[in-house]
Every structure is written in C-alpha cells, then in structure tokens.
Design goal:
Layout (H helix, E strand, L loop, with lengths): L1 H18 L4 H8 L5 H22 L12 H18 L3 H9 L3 H24 L12 H4 L5 H24 L5 H17 L14 H10 L5 H30 L10 H7 L3 H22 L3 H10 L3 H22 L6
Length: about 350
C-alpha cells in the first residue's frame, strides 16, 4: 500500500511539474492576474473529474468523500489560506514538488506549515465550537443519488460544459498549450481514479500531512485530533513524499534542479532580499496550513477533489480563497520594485 501511494504521489508530482503549476513564479503570476496557467489546469482537471467520479459512484465503484460546510471554518480558513498562498506562492501540494526541485522558499514554507499544523493541533479543541454552523455535506451528488439518466447527466453535463469553457477561453487568448492540457488531463484522471475502491478509495489531499507530521515529530499524539487525522495524515505524507521525489527526479534529469530562495516575480515586486523572502515563506506556510485546517482542506482536498464531487463546501471555499488570494496579490504584486 505504501509503494502504491508513493507511486500515485509521484504521478501527482509529475503532472504538477510538467504543467509548471507548482512554480512560485506561476502561482504569483496568477495572484498578480498576469498568468492563468494554474486556473486553466485546475479547471480542466475538475471538468474531467466531475463525470469520472460521478460515473464511478453511480455504478458503485467509488464512494463520495464530501467535506461538510462548517461555515465559520470554511470562511475564516479560506481567507487565511488565500492570503497564505499569495504570500508564499505555493499551495500544500505544490510545496513538495518545488522543494524537490531545489526551491529553498518551498522548504521554508514546509517548515512554516509544520508550525501551523502544530499550533492548530494545540488549539483545535478550543476553537472547534467556532467553526460552525454545520450546514452538512451538501452536494449535487446527493440530489443525483438515483440510477436514472438524470443521475449521470448531473455529472456529465457540468463536466463537459466546464471543459468546453476552459478550451474556448484558452483558444480566445491563444493559450492552447500542451503543458497545461496534459497536466490538467493527468490530474483529473489521477484524482478520479484514486476514488475507486480498488485503488485508494479516497481523493487527493495534502494539508493533513502537516499537522500529522508535526504531531509525530513533537510527540503530540495523545489527543483526539491526532486520532482523527491519523489515517489520512499518514496517507498524505507518503503521497507528498512521492511528489517530492518526482520534483527531484525530473528536475535533475532535465538539468533544471536549482537551489534558489528568491524567484523572479517576487524579486520584481518585493525586491531580492533573501531574509525578507525567507520570513515571508515561513509566515505564508504557517498561515496557509492553519487556514487549511480551519476549512477542513486545501486546493487538493477541498478545491480540486471537492469540486469534482460538486460539493457546496468546495464551492464556498474556492470563492473565499480566490477573493483573498487576488486581494493579497494586488497589494503585494501590484507594483514592481527593484533591489
């Protein structure tokens, strides 16, 4: 099981690095509203995953894993996550791939994320009542729970329309590029296939690995929260280990491996001071993971996998995240600086 999970993580890392959506310059480029590679790749993956997961569940080959809409947690966590992603320039899944490629700010983000996960474990019991109200696990999959044509159409139609929209907008902008198309196709197929009971029986996720690892390292395992995340945290840690290995392998074999702390888009907007970038990455990683745990997921588990299941919690999270992400991006990257 460990070897299979590591392999799935390796594939995940391959598709992220091939489409280049793990790169700091690309994610910051989207925060500055200058580069839409991440959006195209994610939306294509979701468009492919919606009918795939729906069909698998329809025939009993997979089960849904919809996250509840804990309104307080999703809104506050989404705000913090969007801010942290813009400041850091990575999300939990892309951190592992970029760390494997030698990005030192990704390693700083990982250490910051471990701190955020540890602090969340310490505070979880006290802040749990503040995460509500619980609006339950609401999804179109619940409406389309039958076995008729409506059930299948409820997934095939929105998935197809989303794919069509992605390609139409990309064609209009002259951005029909092989890398993001293959990346989106691969991520959508991979996440969809992981839902199958014969593969992993669960969707892709990443942020739970951080509190799980931090709790293990510090011995903070004798609590209800650690018991709750033990299974998923262990799986995600191995999965992200595979993603890190993919980043290392493909960057070394392609000659792109480079130890680097300050990337170009950050340098143009915020300057080239290593200490400032290091502190920003540490802080961004901390806020990113703390926000993800408040919301109950991240861009992988909540956004990508959740939207594939047409979950209301994923939709609300995505809207809040990108409002905070673009707002922070405008403040941080709206003006270019030198130095």
């Amino acid at each position: 099981m460990i070897s299979a999970t590591l392999f799935f993580g390796f594939l995940f890392g391959f598709f992220l690095q091939y489409s280049r959506v793990n790169r700091n310059d690309v994610i910051i480029g989207m925060a500055a509203m200058e580069d839409w590679t991440v959006a195209r790749t994610m939306l294509l993956a979701i468009g492919i995953g919606i009918p795939l997961v729906g069909i698998f569940a329809h025939f009993g080959l997979a089960s849904y894993h919809i996250k509840p809409l804990l309104l307080g947690g999703v809104v506050s966590g989404g705000i913090l996550f969007g801010f942290g992603m813009a400041l850091l320039g990575y999300c939990p899944g892309t951190l592992a791939v970029s760390a494997g490629q030698g990005s030192l700010d990704a390693w700083a983000g990982i250490f910051g994320g471990l701190g955020g996960g540890l602090v969340y474990t310490l505070l979880e019991e006290g802040i749990r009542p503040l995460l509500g109200p619980d609006l339950a696990k609401v999804s179109l999959s619940g409406i389309a729970d039958g076995r008729g044509m409506f059930s299948l159409g409820a997934f095939i139609i929105p998935g197809g329309l989303l794919i069509l929209a992605v390609f139409l907008f990309a064609w209009k902008e002259g951005r029909l590029e092989r890398r993001w198309i293959i990346g989106g196709l691969g991520l959508g197929l991979l996440d969809g296939l992981l839902f199958l009971k014969v593969t992993a029986g669960r969707p892709i996720g990443a942020s739970t690995a951080f509190p799980y690892t931090a709790d293990l390292l510090t011995g903070l395992t004798g609590n209800a929260y650690f018991e709750k995340i033990r299974g998923s945290g262990h799986w995600e840690l191995i999965f992200l280990g595979g993603a890190l290995l993919a980043g290392l392998f493909f960057s070394v074999t392609s000659g792109e491996f480079e130890l680097r702390l300050v990337h170009e888009r950050w340098k143009k907007s915020r300057g080239g001071q290593p200490l400032l970038r290091l502190l920003a990455a540490l802080a961004g990683g901390f806020v990113l993971i703390f926000g993800a745990r408040l919301a109950g997921g991240c861009t992988s588990g909540m956004m990508l996998s959740g939207m594939m299941q047409l979950a209301l919690s994923a939709l609300v999270f995505s809207i809040i995240v990108f409002m905070a992400f673009f707002g922070t991006g405008k403040l941080l990257y709206g003006q270019k600086r030198s130095g």
